[in-house]
Amino acid sequence: MEKWKNNLAGYLFLAPSLLVLIVFVMIPIFYSAGLSFFSWDMLRPNPTFIGLENYERMFTNDEFYHSLKLTFLFALITVPGSLSIALFFALLLDRGSKKLIVLIRSMFFMPMVTSTVAISVVWMFIFHPDYGLMNQFLGWFGVEPLSWLNDTKTSLLSISIMSIWKSIGYCVIIFLAGLQSIDNQVMEAAKVDGATKWQTIIKIKLPLLTPSIFLLLILQTIEQFQTFSQVDVMTQGGPAKSSELIVVQLYHYAFELFQMGYASAISMVIFGIVLLLVLLQMLLLGKKVHYQ
Question: Do residues 148 and 63 make contact, with C-beta atoms less than 8 angstroms apart?
């Protein structure tokens, strides 16, 4: 009886979160999966069942593969970029003054709590071809001004740079938490054994930091495949669809062309790809994570 009461109390505490998960995540997923077999413009009351036509259209559409390729390229730039830069800063801050760490944590975390739209507008000025800070900085090294957001060669790179900057803060916080959880006795033993700072990082810190690295790798992969706001504000997928990521294309078909069934099919493919990537990461890297 006592065990039943404890379980009931646990379920009651979980109920609000489970309710939000079911209403705002699970139900939309199943609804979108069902809608992908229909043709619906959101104006007619009754969608028309068309079977697999949306999927057939999608897998024969060159635009879909173009956006998917751009999304994979974007993730390959932003995920390793944000993790490596964040790890570098976290190692610099580790074992420093607690007051200094609290201050720098706040500075790093600011982009995470700031509106993506507001950040995107600021970065549009940074990338401005005439008076942007980026071209001014490159000008010190003799580099000619670039049309960052208006050139098909640099538009995706511009979005990637902004996204890396925005993600670094969260990654630094997670890495710092992992580094500061390492037992001081382990670090002191390494010093007694004559280990250099570089050996300490490679042989002790990084292996013990693998849970944080693994967590951030999964979270960042999911986040980057859902990138939308910065692209919509900064380039709208242009020029010439050179920065049209897959979620931007989904939005275009759903809320500009009102082809909700086709957009739902795209969303299900995105869901399947992200799920597959996460499972592959867990399968290939899960065994290399050291939790103790």
Answer: no
Dihedral sign (CA 212, 79, 111, 133): positive
Cα distances (angstroms) measured from residue 4 to each of 7, 9, 12? 5, 9, 12
Least Cα distance to 164 among 220, 219, 114, 245 occurs for: 220
- The backbone torsions φ and ψ at residue 198, rounded to the nearest 5 degrees and listed phi first, read -65, -40
What is the separation of C-alpha 221 from the centre of its chain, rounded to a whole number of angstroms? 5
CATH of domain 61-288: 1.10.3720.10
Contacts of 256 (CB under 8 A, 6+ apart): none
Q: Report how far residue 155's alpha carbon sits from residue 134's, in angstroms, rounded to the nearest whole number.
A: 14
Quick one: which of 26, 57, 166, 149 has its CA closest to 108?
166
**CA distances (Å), 262 to each of 29, 42, 95, 233, in order?**
15, 12, 52, 24
- Cα–Cα distance measured from residue 256 to residue 260, given in angstroms and rounded to the nearest whole number: 10
Residue 151 DSSP label: -
For residue 179, what are the contacts with CB-CB under 8 A and spacing of at least 6? 90, 91, 94, 95, 205, 209
**Euclidean distance between CA atoms 88 and 239, whole angstroms:** 34
Name residue 31's amino acid. Y
* Token pair of 74 as six digits: 């974007």
- CA 86 to CA 221: how far, in whole Å? 15
Residue 173 banded pLDDT, cuts 50, 70, 90: confident
Give the pLDDT confidence of 180-205 residue by residue, as tens digits: 887 777 777 777 777 777 888 888 88
